[in-house]
TrEMBL record:
InterPro entries: Cation_efflux (IPR002524), Cation_efflux_CTD (IPR027470), Cation_efflux_CTD_sf (IPR036837), Cation_efflux_TM (IPR058533), Cation_efflux_TMD_sf (IPR027469), CDF_Transporter (IPR050291). This is Cation diffusion facilitator family transporter. The keyword Transport applies. Its main location: membrane. GO terms for cellular component: membrane. Belongs to the cation diffusion facilitator (CDF) transporter (TC 2.A.4) family. The chain crosses the membrane at residues 20-50, 130-147, 194-211. The keyword Transmembrane helix applies. It is a multi-pass membrane protein. Residues 20-219 form the Cation efflux protein transmembrane domain. It is found in: Membrane. It comes from Fluviispira multicolorata.
Length: 305
């Protein structure tokens, strides 16, 4: 028990460190992009600046969330605090969708103004802006990989969701570079709001996936079949006296999995032998998935439900 607690504390610190690194990178990019927005008036630059600002806020929030989610179960939270990460991921997805809609509306208005003969002042003449966004794209790619590796390693929905945000940021950085370049060489300012509209749609679409995943976890949606099959195979290999596994149910809460199922054992076994097998199953499965396991034993003389 002490070993698992130490691992949990270590994982919490790693997750917090990953979120902090992401927040620092996002803050740097947000300041640079906001400066460029005031210099250029470009909507696609504004979209990218909004995305980086939200990434910074989300990463700072995640730093607290991943710590809270890994607290031990207590009297008020007997199943732990893992769902805090799913709630955070749901909030992040909703926030990004809101920003994407706002930029999309502004893009449509600007396209309408241009088509009606109004002049839109956008300054894309400074090539240093393009160089900055190329640099920003590499920073976003680094942070995406950093968060994805740590999120998968620690099984953290909040970090994985954050990685998706920075993946979107990488795309908006590339699109910003493209918009700045095209407008600079063609002089067609309408390309800026058109590209901003297209990529705001991409951001909204990507965030809908995060919202769906978060809602599924909060609604106790069944775990993926591949993970379920792995868990069942682990149980089968635990002891050769296990005759059958049935009524297998599982759900995910934050970084933890919760399993409950029945196993059929020979009715000739003594009570202490059954207890040993059940205890072994719970230990092996909970160690493999950092989860909570409840196993019910049925004698072989009783048909599975």
């Amino acid at each position: 028990m002490l070993h698992r607690l130490t691992d949990g504390l270590s994982n919490s610190k790693i997750a917090q460190r990953a979120a902090l690194v992401a927040a620092i990178c996002a803050a740097f990019l947000a300041v640079g992009k906001l400066t460029l927005f005031f210099m250029t008036g470009s909507l696609i630059v504004a979209l990218s600046a909004w995305d980086s600002t939200m990434d910074m806020i989300v990463s700072l929030v995640n730093r607290k969330i991943v710590k809270f989610a890994r607290l031990d179960a207590d009297h008020n939270h007997p199943y732990g605090h893992g769902r805090a990460e799913s709630i955070a991921a749901l909030g992040q997805g909703s926030l990004i969708i809101g920003g994407g809609i706002a930029i999309a509306v502004s893009s449509v208005r600007q396209i309408y103004d241009v088509l009606n003969g109004q002049t839109v002042l956008i300054n894309h003449s400074d090539w240093k802006q393009i160089v900055f966004f190329i640099f920003a794209a590499f920073v976003s790619l680094f942070v995406t990989k950093w968060l994805k590796v740590n999120g998968l390693k620690l099984n953290s929905p909040a970090l994985i969701a954050d990685a998706e945000h920075y993946k979107v940021d990488f795309v908006t950085n590339i699109s910003s570079t493209l918009a700045l370049f095209l407008v600079a060489i063609t002089g067609y300012t309408i390309l800026d709001p058109i590209l901003a509209l297209l990529f705001s749609g991409y951001i909204i679409y990507g965030s809908l996936g995060l919202v769906k995943t978060s809602i599924n976890e909060l609604m106790d949606h069944d775990i993926p079949d591949d993970i379920k099959l792995i868990a069942i195979e682990i149980v089968k290999k635990t002891d050769e006296r296990i005759l059958d596994i049935h009524r297998f149910r599982a759900r995910k809460s934050g970084h933890k999995y919760f399993f409950d199922f029945h196993v059929t054992l020979p009715e000739s076994l003594l009570f202490n032998e059954v207890h040993y097998i059940i205890d072994k199953i719970e230990h092996v499965l909970s160690s493999e998935f950092e989860g909570d396991v409840i196993v019910h034993a049925d004698p072989s003389s009783v048909s599975p439900d």
